[in-house]
């Protein structure tokens, strides 16, 4: 296990804010609090989702400045936002706020909307926070993964919050929230509390959420049948399965991990992706 000092910087806090704007677009904001261990003048944020109109502000030792921002496609669907700022070094306090608009986090699943997002930390994080803003007019449905720490009705919106202390390096998070329907100008809180109580009551990270449970509203059985039907043709890469199924990358990854644990399929690491095939009986 690497000590914090082996990284270029320590991540003291990492916050994600998702604002659903319409049926396709989401505004994503990332706030990161960093303690550098070496001289640092650039931070790179990677996203598997499209990036539109990125902006960044940095705060160095309490002083705010506009950061230089550039975007490029790294490989496949992975995009990178490069944030440049005045050099900081050990002992300085650095806060970075990145915001952009994106599509791809919202999908139509069986006639209903579903928000999904996948995140993996490559180094430890002191405190992790995520918040999802859902505008008035939608009814929340299961699945809600993971179970939120807080649900709040705020006038014209519903807010969901997730929190976790001491995130480990390599820890993964899958966020899935289903919603649909039209409400009559109100957001009665109990309307959302009831679906939440019947949603998953797993741990905060995906590895605990799917230990053989089959209570999800994702319709896993139906989705598993689709995967098996496709793989009967031939083994294929996970990225190709995403295109064939029409699901989000996060949902496919979660689905395949669950199927692998249950002995239905095999996933063989091949470079940056997986070759997926049916399990030989």
UniProtKB/TrEMBL annotation:
Pfam families in the cross-refs: DUF7343
Transmembrane segments: 189-210
Superkingdom field: Archaea
Domain DUF7343: 220-278
Protein name (database record): DUF7343 domain-containing protein
Key words of the record: Membrane, Transmembrane, Transmembrane helix
Family annotation (InterPro entries): ArsR-like_HTH (IPR011991), DUF7343 (IPR055767), WH-like_DNA-bd_sf (IPR036388), WH_DNA-bd_sf (IPR036390)
């Amino acid at each position: 296990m690497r000590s914090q000092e082996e990284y270029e910087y320590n991540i003291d806090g990492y916050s994600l804010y998702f604002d659903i704007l319409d049926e396709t677009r989401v505004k994503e904001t990332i706030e990161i609090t960093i303690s550098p261990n070496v001289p640092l003048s650039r931070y790179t944020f990677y996203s598997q989702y499209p990036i539109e109109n990125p902006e960044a502000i940095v705060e160095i030792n309490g002083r705010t400045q506009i950061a230089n921002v550039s975007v490029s496609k790294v490989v496949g669907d992975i995009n990178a936002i490069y944030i440049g700022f005045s050099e900081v070094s050990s002992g300085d306090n650095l806060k970075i706020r990145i915001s952009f608009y994106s599509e791809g986090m919202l999908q139509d699943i069986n006639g209903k909307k579903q928000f999904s997002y996948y995140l993996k930390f490559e180094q430890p994080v002191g405190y992790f926070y995520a918040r999802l803003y859902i505008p008035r007019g939608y009814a929340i449905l299961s699945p809600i993964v993971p179970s939120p720490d807080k649900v709040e009705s705020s006038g014209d919106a519903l807010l969901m919050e997730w929190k976790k202390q001491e995130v480990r390096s390599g820890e993964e998070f899958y966020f899935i929230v289903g919603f649909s329907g039209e409400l009559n100008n109100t957001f009665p809180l109990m309307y959302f509390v009831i679906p939440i109580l019947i949603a998953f009551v797993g741990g905060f990270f995906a590895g605990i959420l799917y230990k053989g449970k089959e209570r999800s509203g994702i319709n896993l059985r139906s989705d598993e049948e689709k995967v098996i039907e496709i793989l009967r043709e031939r083994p294929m890469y996970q990225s190709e399965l995403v295109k064939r199924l029409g699901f989000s990358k996060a949902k496919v990854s979660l689905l395949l991990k669950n199927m692998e644990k249950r002995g239905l399929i095999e996933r063989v690491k091949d470079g940056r992706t997986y070759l997926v095939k049916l399990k030989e009986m």
